[in-house]
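Is this the right way to post structure tokens for a design question? Let me know if I should format differently. Anyway, here goes:
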């Protein structure tokens, strides 16, 4: 692909069967992500499965790992990217199943913009935004993860009654705009696009079936941006601007063992620069090693900058010593450390009872997924003004906001939101739903004790001798 174009990361999200995979697959096909022969293979496969209309969806579900874990194709670079006039686009297809929420949250740490896919087919939109649906939960989690750019796709317009109904589109746009505004989005900055992902209507070219659709408009400081198709909307996405001046922070998303290379960690550079031969520290376990190689899309790099999704090998740190949720940092410049406790401002979105001292849910912060105990409810605050309304409350219930102190049950690395936003926002998960969201305002960190490669090697040798 052309190196002159800016690389961005997208993900399609929404309820199951809304057409996320079909939309993503059609974009890849049109954008040159695969040839006609490969598409015909997927068409035959979908016909054998009795789903002749799912050839583009099959494209996005080629990996057994993806089917089992609900992760998109971000780490499988053969069939996950395409080009527009201004961008190189890497697209993931997130599962609409509730059981895969944990992995979906991890994937959001790498995304510049979301494609919210809802179905216009009778009753399908209503199911997707209900309490049993996944659409609003996915949108809420993506907003918490810091993804402020989104495009709304009203799919299956060919299945409305009557087909390509303007009334149905306006109804969905009105209802969804209200929900998005309540979450925090500004509706005037979101394009709403009616389309049929299977047939390609309004994806690349203006559909002749919807003459009533006058296009979308986005309000920006330098003036409005307008267009009609999904591809034009993708061209308007602004790549994330992360700081290169700050110390390195790279949350690890996954670790793979590759023959001839060793342990390869995968993650997105949030701040700073990762360089070859750099001495890095892995928190919260305080392991130190040397970066021996860096790759992106199977191409070797000398360094990784903010926004890059990388694979890298650290000499001196083995596969079994690395985990998802660990954080890679520069060992010589403000290295990341384990959080003994942290103070946060939370908003309780929906909890069947109330949050009290001792409550121990799961916290999703960057790529980490760890249980934390609420050890102190410091105060309740007004959501609108931020003023304290009650000191040391006994509980915080749905719709209320407060300052709380939490202690992780297992070692984890988090940061103050003001210092490293990507590592300072979190979601509170319980009962398979998001019950609260928050930002970290202070962190009590463990004392930094570097464990160099030589000491670990000597320790391992002594243990072998003892045996």
């Amino acid at each position: 692909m052309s190196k002159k174009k800016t690389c961005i990361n997208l993900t399609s999200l929404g309820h199951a069967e809304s057409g996320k995979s079909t939309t993503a697959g059609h974009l890849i096909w049109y954008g040159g992500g695969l040839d006609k022969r490969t598409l015909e293979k997927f068409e035959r496969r979908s016909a054998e499965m009795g789903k002749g209309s799912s050839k583009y969806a099959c494209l996005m579900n080629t990996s057994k790992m993806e089917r089992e874990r609900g992760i998109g194709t971000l780490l499988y670079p053969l069939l996950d990217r395409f080009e527009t006039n201004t961008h190189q686009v890497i697209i993931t297809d997130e599962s609409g199943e509730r059981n895969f929420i944990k992995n979906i949250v991890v994937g959001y740490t790498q995304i510049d913009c979301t494609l919210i896919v809802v179905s216009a087919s009778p009753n399908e939109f209503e199911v997707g935004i209900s309490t049993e649906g996944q659409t609003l939960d996915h949108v809420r989690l993506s907003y918490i993860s810091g993804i402020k750019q989104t495009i709304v796709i009203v799919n299956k317009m060919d299945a409305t009654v009557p087909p390509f109904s303007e009334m149905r589109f306006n109804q969905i746009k009105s209802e969804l705009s209200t929900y998005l505004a309540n979450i925090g989005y500004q509706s005037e900055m979101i394009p709403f696009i009616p389309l049929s992902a299977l047939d390609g209507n309004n994806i690349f070219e203006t559909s002749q079936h919807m003459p009533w659709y006058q296009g979308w408009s986005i309000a920006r400081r330098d003036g409005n941006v307008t267009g009609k198709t999904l591809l034009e909307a993708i061209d308007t996405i602004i790549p994330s601007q992360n700081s290169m001046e700050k110390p390195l922070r790279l949350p690890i998303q996954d670790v793979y063992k590759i023959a001839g290379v060793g342990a390869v960690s995968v993650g997105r550079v949030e701040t700073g620069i990762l360089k070859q031969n750099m001495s890095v520290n892995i928190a919260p376990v305080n392991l130190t090693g040397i970066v021996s190689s860096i790759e992106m899309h199977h191409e070797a790099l000398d360094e990784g900058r903010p926004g890059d999704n990388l694979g890298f090998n650290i000499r001196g740190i083995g596969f079994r010593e690395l985990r998802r949720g660990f954080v890679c940092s520069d060992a010589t410049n403000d290295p990341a450390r384990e959080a003994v406790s942290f103070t946060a401002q939370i908003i309780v979105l929906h909890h069947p009872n109330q949050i009290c001292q001792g409550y121990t849910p799961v916290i999703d912060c960057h790529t980490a997924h760890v249980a934390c105990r609420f050890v102190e409810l410091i105060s309740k605050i007004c959501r609108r003004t931020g003023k304290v309304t009650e000191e040391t409350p006994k509980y915080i219930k749905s719709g209320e906001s407060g300052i709380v102190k939490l202690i992780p049950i297992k070692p984890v690395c988090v940061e103050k939101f003001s210092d490293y936003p990507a590592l300072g926002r979190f979601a509170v998960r319980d009962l398979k739903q998001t019950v609260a969201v928050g930002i970290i305002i202070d962190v009590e960190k463990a004392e930094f004790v570097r464990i160099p490669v030589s000491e670990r090697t000597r320790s391992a040798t002594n243990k072998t001798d003892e045996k």
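Format looks fine. Someone answered above. Worth noting: The first strand starts at residue 6 and ends at 13. The chain has ten helices and 26 strands.
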